[in-house]
Amino acid sequence: MRILALNPYHGGSHKALIDGWRSRSRHEFETLTLPAHHWKWRMRHAGITFARHAGALHNEGERFDAVFCTDMMNLAEFRGLAPREIAALPSVAYFHENQLTYPDATASERDHHFAMTNFVTALAADAVWFNSDYHRAELLDAMREFLGRMPDHSPYTLLGTIAERSSIQPPGVECGRPRGERPPGPLRILWAARWEHDKGPDRFFAALNRLVERGVDFRVSVLGESFAAIPDCFGDARYRLADRIDHWGYIDNRSAFRNVLRQADVVVSTALHEFFGISVVEATAQGCVPVVPDRLAYPEVLDPDVAVFYGSRETDADLRDESVAGDIDETEALTIRLNALATRAEDAAWWSKKSAAAIRSVERFDWTRRVDEMDDALEQLK
To answer: Which three-class secondary structure state does DSSP give residue 279?
Structure first.
């Protein structure tokens, strides 16, 4: 099959999915992309822009069997403006995230036009793929409440159509080989996420500050993409933790990125929202032990026998602090988990076993499996 793939925001997990899939797929991809910035404008104009580009390809004699797009796309707009032959092709809309339940960093009222774009894209698609069942359920529930507020002519009954067309298609990752014996040294902590408010970087650095105050020895690597507006906590942390930093900043080369992941002991998430957690799964696939909040998509995606949850979920007895009584905030819960893991830093056998289990726990997401499942799903759609 020949796939016309449309990615209005070609960065992060959106880019990783497209690049990872097309490089391994038995199908042929023609990919139209736009740079990963000015996301609001991307959602506004991508349908128009890609319809023009697709029309030019059609006029040059290019033919396709299906259309694939991500959630930043207005698929209904694209199908209305593209040549009839392309508009009639079976289409898939992939939801990495959505604009209705995504946390808003400002106090202003949410722009529901973007939520409506997500709704009409899902409605215009022949198949709707979600990266997790948590995401699917949360979006459909939020859409039901959102559409129910319309004064009249609400299309909320069409949510049943979207639900019938939906399936779970998690992204793929590249699993690493088992690690050897852990090198000596203090706990090596990794944080790998976008440098934006919704990933909770202030909570992460607050936990590290508490570890420093308690005399805990550790090293830290802070990876991930940054944009024009970087939260102040990053600059502050780089100054305060300067003598503990192994790596700092975005790594574009995938091989170099995976090597840094393999040097860490644990990968931490402090996300305020997460519909899958691609960076955490990637790090787990390279042998890092995930330390994540007991909420969002993590309980679905990660093996409870491997992940170290902080929050309400129980974890290994030796990673709890029984002296702490009463309710504590998530930052303190994370601090306790990291402190307990730091005490195990020199137990090479424990880490070797835990690291190997981490890799096995996410093998179902390995691209060697996911590519065939996604390719098959496209063929069934045709």
So the answer is: helix
What the block records as the tokens of 231 is 């939260």
What is the distance between the alpha carbons of residues 50 and 32, in angstroms, rounded to a whole number? 7
Close Cβ partners of 19 (under 8 Å, ≥ 6 residues apart): none
Same domain, 194 and 261: yes
Angle at 191 between CA 189 and CA 197, to 5 degrees: 145
Let me know if residue 177 belongs to a domain: no
Tell me, yes or no, whether 24 and 129 share the same domain: yes
Q: Exposed/middle/buried for 117, CB within 10 Å: 0-12, 13-18, 19+?
A: buried
**Of the candidates 174, 100, 92, which has an alpha carbon nearest to the alpha carbon of residue 130?**
92
pLDDT at 110: 63
| Residues 148 and 45 grouped into a single domain | yes
The two structure tokens encoding residue 118: 């997500």
Task: Write the pLDDT tens digit of every residue in 5-41.
Answer: 999 999 889 999 999 999 999 999 999 999 988 989 9
Instruction: Detail the DSSP E strand segments found in 11-83.
Output: 28-35, 66-70
CATH number of the structural domain spanning residue 92: 3.40.50.2000
Residue 51 identity: A
Minimal CA–CA distance to 49: which of 89, 82, 3? 82
Whole-number pLDDT of residue 47: 97
- Does 198 lie in the same domain as 155? no
Q: Is 257 helix (H, G, I), strand (E, B) or coil?
A: helix
pLDDT in tens, 120-134: 999 999 999 999 999
Q: Quick one: pLDDT at residue 109? A: 61
* Greatest CA separation for the chain: 71
Sheet of 289-293: strand order equals: 245-248, 218-223, 187-192, 266-268, 289-293, 308-310
User: For the chain, how are helix, strand and coil distributed in percent, rounded to 5?
Assistant: 45, 15, 35
Chain segment 41-62, per-residue pLDDT in tens: 999 999 999 999 999 999 999 9
> What is d(CA 87, CA 106) in angstroms, rounded to the nearest whole number?
37
Residues in the chain predicted with pLDDT less than 70, given as ranges, are: 104-110, 312-327
Host domain of residue 159: 2-172+367-381
Residue 206 lies in a domain: yes
